[in-house]
Amino acid sequence: MRRPRRLPRIPGCASLRAFLGALAVWAGVLSSSAVAQSADAAQLTVFAAASMGDVMRDLAPLWKAQGGDAFRTSLAGSSVLARQIQQGAPADVFISANAAWMDLLERDGVILPDTRSDLAANTLVLIARDPKAAPIAPGQDLAAQIDKRLGNGRLAMALVDAVPAGIYGKAALETLGAWPGLAPRIAQADNVRAALALVASGEAPLGIVYATDALAEPRVRVIASFPPGTHPPIRYPVAAVAGGHDAAAGAFLAFLRSPGAAGVLRAHGFLPAPER
């Protein structure tokens, strides 16, 4: 097992949240370690952003059909996964939902930079639970419509200071000038799929998620898309983790770039990653 590394300082976190976050990270590391000790030491372990869950499920049989062994997948917010990897969790491949967390691991020498590439892209959408909710036309004031349609309810989002979907959502609302008024009415969730569940279950009337998440949940509908210029580009960088099973990780990264894997990503609504 890798030697635990010091957690990076995350700006803007209150001390209680930082303490609870540290406990969650260590719980994840210990859980991952227990799994690793009881499983085949050569088995590939992929840490992937929660929004990649359906893709990873459908990639597994395709990978196996091409001669690959079964792999384990750990799904969570990119921030949680990055912290676990930082602490030495036994990951071989990391798929993040934004570049910042991958940049952090690259600066600390935790990933192999030569293996890094952008796997896919995504878009940000506003969803509603009400099947009769009217779409918001591109010419309408999106910020005013969100405020009006929320009523006394809350806007579901992933953690706005840590999880990529929440970071993108906050940036979009700031660009639209809506953040100051909406900030007290945000219902923050641990990851984007948890935010999606808040809307799907009716606990929140509206939510901000990726287009791919909305596609995966029949109980919600997309009522607006956030213009790309309102937030940073949504890219999914992928890389091999230093000290992992390099050969297996390299083969899996090559598989992710194959036409078959690209077809799975496309089927789940992901877009090709733009060239830098």
Automatic annotation (TrEMBL):
Keywords: Metal-binding, Molybdenum, Signal. The keyword Signal applies. The keyword Metal-binding applies. One of its GO terms (molecular function) is tungstate binding. It comes from the Bacteria. Residues 1-27 form the signal peptide. Molybdate binds at S51, S78, A165, V192, Y210. InterPro entries: ModA, ModA/WtpA. One of its GO terms (biological process) is molybdate ion transport. GO terms for cellular component: outer membrane-bounded periplasmic space. The complex is composed of two ATP-binding proteins (ModC), two transmembrane proteins (ModB) and a solute-binding protein (ModA). Belongs to the bacterial solute-binding protein ModA family. This is Molybdate ABC transporter substrate-binding protein. The lineage of its organism: Bacteria, Pseudomonadati, Pseudomonadota, Alphaproteobacteria, Rhodobacterales. The gene is modA.
